[in-house]
Amino acid sequence: MEDYLKADERIDDLQLGGLKIIQHPRKFCFGIDAVLLANFATVKKGDTVVDFGTGTGIIPIIIAGKTAASSITGIEIQEDMAEMAARSVLMNGIQNRVRIVHGDIKRIDRYFKDNSIDLVTTNPPYMNSGKGLVNPDSSKAVSRHEILCSLEDVVSSAARILRNGGRLAMIHRSNRLVDVLYTMRIKGIEPKVLRMIYPAAHKASNLFLVEGQKSGGAFLKVLKPLVLYDGDGNYTQEVYDIYYRGKRM
Hints:
The chain is of the alpha/beta class. It has a single domain (2-244), classed as Rossmann fold, CATH 3.40.50. It is 27% helix and 27% strand. The protein has seven helices and eleven strands. The chain has helices at residues 32-40, 58-66, 79-92, 138-144, 151-161, 177-186, 237-244, and strands at residues 10-13, 20-23, 48-52, 71-76, 98-102, 117-122, 162-173, 189-200, 207-214, 221-222, 226-229. The strands form two sheets. Strands 3, 4, 5, 6, 7, 8, 9, 10 and 11 form a nine-stranded mixed β-sheet that branches. A two-stranded antiparallel ribbon has the order 1-2. Helix 1 crosses helix 2 (58-66) and helix 5 (151-161) runs parallel beside helix 6. The two termini are 31 Å apart.
């Protein structure tokens, strides 16, 4: 597998049917938010899935390992990240189901037909452009701040390629909950399932998961909270199961 590596890169075991991923420690590496999103999204047998801002390709690789989706595409604007993600796909031998596209979601019509996709997933930049401290590493900055795309860009592009009844699944910061739900609704994607995430039982929520449906009716189901760590600082049983036992949320 070292044949797939470039200088300073490493291979991490995903603990999922032998799947592994290439990462560069000085670039943006996936975190628990991507794992939670990949397990939260509703993926049906035969679905066509597109992951916006795929980064290392973690979400397409997990979905390939855990579901019967027929086609999974990750789109990434940073050429070096897209190239690295494509090598992970080849290394895992899943190129018959997963592909990585170097492209800009703001020009999503270049890569996908309108009304053609069953599910869009996205772990978008959390910070508004011009707010918060911007990481001087450009790869990490693009991944964390709305520099090359905004929340509205993400939702608009998803709405364009999703078929009627198709789904958009997203993880985002709790302080932007209103922004996300409002943007989804005005773009024709009705929020249908919401789950708040808490770092610990005694702390305030810092993240949330949401799934919406294109042209869906107005009805929101709020799931029980997801707590990440117990009182000893270890993963809760549910999070442990998601990571290591292939359990879906």
